[in-house]
Sequence to fold (259 residues):
Amino acid sequence: MKKSSLSIAVALSTLISLNCMASNSTFNKEQEDEIGKIAAEYIVNHPEILVQASKNLQLKQMKLQQAASAKAIVDNQDALLKDKKSPFIGPSDAAVSIIEFFDYQCAYCAKLSPEFDSIIKENPDAKFIFKETPIFSTRWEVSGYAADMGQWVFSEKGSKAYLTYHNAIFATGHDEGKLTKEDVKKAAKKAGVNVNEFKPNERYTANFQLFAKLGLRGTPAVVIMPSKGANQDNVVMLPGYDPEGIKNAIRKVKASITQ
Fold:
């Protein structure tokens, strides 16, 4: 019959205590060697201890990371929510805000795009904020060019035109270095702007700074939070491609506001 988790934990704790005592020279050399042998044999015969310890460590690290992310979101909520240069879709006074950090050349951002568009349509009462973050611009110049154009389209024509541009870029299917400036110009024309008036000036710089403050390392990354009254218990950070996670987080944050 296998030992229960509690029994294993107690046994392991005892072995660790014995080793600590040994390291403090409570025992002579022969006794220390014997204790080490007993501990080693026990672990060999009960490898599940190491598996459980690894799981516990991963869980602890995940909780610490989540807590750090939540704190970073709360500390930077004005930059997330109140930057007037950031394109957005939905009511400006929405109770819930969803902020996406993305790069037009990111394959997973492209994969998320149609899912994200569906989420926007399913949540007309939410505000969706787009943080152009061209992390691949040092590799592919057009990444930064497209991001800059996107923010300019928003400043010139507003939310509806921006969403037209945004979706048109991803609709090309040209990611990971395949996007061209001609693709970008066509999408901008579709949004109704005169591209001859566009002057690149890296309007997205502040997004990079915020991206770093939040401890993010890749795109896409999505933050779901109340537009007012955000705290570490009612904000969610989702790095990577996770459309179901986004939907669940939106429901969670909405529920926290109505309670």
The first strand starts at residue 88 and ends at 89. The longest helix spans residues 48-75. The two ends are 47 Å apart (CA to CA).
